[in-house]
Design goal:
The structure holds three protein chains of three kinds. Chain A is mainly β. Chain A has no helices and seven strands. Chain A has one domain: Immunoglobulins (Immunoglobulin-like, Sandwich). In chain A, strand 3 and strand 4 form a beta hairpin. Chain C is mainly alpha-helical. Chain C has one domain. Classes of the chains: A mainly beta, B mainly alpha, C mainly alpha. Chains in contact: A-B, B-C.
């Protein structure tokens, strides 16, 4: 199955700029469907970015984050060609991970 | 004559003079070429700093800050998932073995800018969405909803294959086509719904201004970005979805998706934006 | 004496704001509203608020509150008629907004 994570990391001087788009329903658990039944909460709880064995970004998410979240951040360090690891875990225990090279 | 009736007479006389003006409301033989020219001139004059081709970016062409955010977003557009889904759907064969490519010129690739077109045989406007469902039905498949994900993904993919191509709507030398065009124009400017808004109220009179928290898009090029991923919808939406939801937003009961009025409206709006590039699928707040 | 009492009772209740609406009153008011809304439908110009008023009328009637049901029906009829007026007047007025 194709990864749910699209990521692009670009080296910019001594910082690396990272963008990621993640495919996930991010159901808050507060929305009802057409039949009036609550759609159960289903959202990413933790999103982690690692570089060189170190965590450079971690997000602790809850129901307030919308569907297909987009993240953008920058961290000091990282060189072209380096690998970045990205992974998420949701409240149902599902997860996905991928790696990307810094451009 | 009493003062009151004198005033009334004067007002009537003034009104009569106003209506007698030759330039106004002449026996309106539609002139789409002149309309399109006037339409584009209106917007380029109103927003002299915006390049003609940038009008297709809707609210992002109206606001500097939003434009910056949009440029960043374009590096990682939210419609990527719908686009991929659309590509898969488009190439998946029907139960009878045929595909969408068999229904369209050039296999459906790079043709979005020609829609809608006037079908002289059927005597009606055919939009891309209508053509897709007709293709399905012709091949023994049930039509999909005009306002849900499948149609949005399919039209997103087809729009993507036409990115950059100039909108190229044709009005054949057929009175019915002209009538459909006029019908669309009429719909666009007619006020409706309890809020008494026409499409023009927002998109001609107030582009760049706010309606509640939203910045309004100019009508010029507004179809070029369709279908659009709207943050408001948390997903991809079709032209049909936009038309129907807009109707209900102004407290008008929406017509059925792809009803004649909507197709004619799309025909008119697309025609007056001829020459502007297809930018779809788009992303909007 | 009894008659006087009876008459005064009727007079007092008669001078109250309105006599309670009956189901018949509701049916008549609703029918009128429906007809107007249908006409608006022919003109392809119905309002969502008209539909909401009609639904409210029906709901009130179902729970026996015919006063409210009649009030909502009358509101629906007024809204429907306004939408008809809008459709008719816009037949020409749209040209005022047209870019030429």
């Amino acid at each position: 199955m194709a990864s749910t994570i699209r990521v692009r990391a670009i080296s910019n001087g001594d910082t690396t700029e990272v963008q990621a788009l993640i495919q996930h329903p991010m159901d808050s658990g507060f929305v009802k469907d057409a039949q009036g039944q609550v759609i159960p909460a289903h959202f990413i709880q933790q999103l982690t970015f690692e570089h060189g064995g170190k965590t450079v970004f971690v997000a602790d998410w809850g129901p307030a984050v919308s569907k297909d979240p987009y993240v953008k951040f920058a961290f000091k360090g990282g060189n072209k060609g380096d690998e970045i690891k990205i992974g998420w875990v949701d409240n149902k225990g599902a997860s996905d991970a991928t790696t990307a090279k810094i451009q | 004559m009493t003062t009151r009736s004198a005033i009334r007479f004067a007002l009537l006389a003034l009104a009569a003079l106003a209506f007698a003006e030759p330039s106004a409301r002449a026996a309106d033989t539609p002139d789409p070429v002149a309309d399109a020219k006037a339409f584009q001139k209106f917007f380029t004059q109103k927003f002299p700093k915006v390049k003609l081709e940038d009008f297709v970016n809707g609210p992002y062409s109206m606001n500097e800050d939003m434009h910056r955010q949009w440029e960043e977003k374009e590096q990682f557009p939210p419609y990527e998932f719908a686009l991929e889904a659309g590509k898969d759907m488009f190439s998946k064969p029907f139960k009878n073995g045929k595909t969408y490519a068999d229904c369209f010129p050039n296999g459906g690739i790079g043709i979005r800018q020609n829609y809608p077109y006037f079908d002289e045989k059927e005597g009606e406007v055919v939009t891309l969405e209508l053509a897709l469902n007709r293709c399905r039905e012709a091949n023994g498949e049930a039509p999909v909803s005009y306002v849900k994900d499948e149609m949005a993904s399919l039209t997103a993919y087809m729009a993507y294959t036409s990115r950059g191509k100039p909108m190229d709507i044709k009005i054949p030398n057929d009175l019915r086509a002209l009538e459909a065009y006029e019908n669309g124009k009429r719909y666009f400017y007619t006020r409706r719904g309890q809020l008494n808004f026409s499409c023009a109220t927002c998109h001609v009179q107030s582009p760049g201004e706010r309606i509640r928290a939203e910045i309004l898009a100019p009508a010029l090029g507004i179809m070029n970005a369709m279908p659009i991923y709207r943050s408001e919808w948390s997903g991809m939406g079709t032209t049909s979805r936009r038309f129907t939801t807009c109707n209900s937003q102004i407290r008008g009961v929406p017509l059925n998706p792809q009803d004649e009025e909507y197709r004619d409206l799309e025909y008119y709006l697309s025609y007056v934006s001829n020459g502007l590039p297809i930018s779809g699928p788009g992303a909007r707040p | 004496m009894r008659a006087l009492l009876l008459i005064s009772v009727f007079l007092i209740t008669g001078s109250a704001p309105t006599l309670a609406a009956s189901e018949g009153d509701f049916k008549a008011a609703y029918a009128a509203a429906e007809i107007a809304e249908k006409d608006a439908g022919q003109l392809r110009n119905q309002w969502t608020t008209t539909e909401a008023a009609l639904a409210a009328a029906k709901k009130a009637a179902a729970s026996g509150d015919f006063d409210q049901a009649v009030a909502s029906s009358k509101e629906a009829e007024a809204l429907a008629k306004a939408s008809i007026f809008q459709a008719t007047s816009e037949k020409e007025r749209w040209k005022d907004m047209e870019i030429r």
